[in-house]
Amino acid sequence: MLPELVADVLALADAAGARTFHVVGHDWGGVVAWALAAGHPERVRSATVLSTPHPAALREGVVRGTQAMRSTYVAGFQVPALPERLLLARSGAALRALLVRGGLPADLAAGYARRMAEPGALSAALGWYRALPLGRGRTGEVRVPVTYLHGRDDPFFAPASVRATAAHVRGEFSQARLPTGHWLPEREPAAVADAVLARVRRSA
């Protein structure tokens, strides 16, 4: 799955006539950003990754920290059909509650739940999790400039995974912890925008 997603980003850049570009990714987008920066440093001028540790650091967090416990929901999302039935029951009440427990503001959680109730939308989102066993290869070291932002209270990523991320970047690296949870773009939009612009300027 991941090689195809990286190829999609490169194809979009090619279509836009961008030989090199800056990439920003949050959550699953962060996974793609790490793989893109590691595999195609000749194309990526810089990466700003929100929330998601480097994939190798995630594996280290499983061994040395609480990452395995924090990722148990992933196995549930891989079950065919059942998550859609449970999460979308009663007009998506369970999905809204899940998003709020994960730190998303209630009004945004309600909006996201409405979007996920559209035909096929939730299955498409869960497809990221269901494709995990089919992933090929591992993300290597990143040699382009990176800014990594993470939330102090992120329930999904263990501190051990966050701490281990720096060891997998060989380019210029900056890291900042924001006083929030997982949903950095929604909770700290100004801080995220400032960090992205600062990274782009330094890497122009």
Describe this structure in words.
This protein is α/β, with parallel strands linked by helices and 204 residues long. It is 54% helix and 12% strand. A 4-stranded parallel sheet has the order 1-2-3-4, with helices on both faces. The chain is globular, with a radius of gyration of 17 Å. The mean pLDDT is 95.
**Would you tell me the structural class of the helices and strands?**
alpha/beta
CATH top level of the largest domain? Alpha Beta
The number of strands is: 4
Mean pLDDT: 95
What general outline do the C-alpha atoms trace? globular
Which percent range describes the beta-strand content? 5-15%
Index terms:
2 domains; alpha/beta; Rossmann fold; four-stranded parallel β-sheet; 204 residues; single chain; 11 helices
Summarize the structure.
This protein has 204 residues and is α/β, with parallel strands linked by helices.
Topology record:
Blueprint: H1 2-15, E1 21-26, H2 28-39, E2 44-50, H3 55-64, H4 67-70, H5 72-77, H6 82-101, H7 106-116, H8 121-130, E3 146-151, H9 159-164, E4 173-178, H10 184-187, H11 189-202
Parallel strand pairs: 1-2, 2-3, 3-4
Helix pairs in contact: 1-2, 6-7
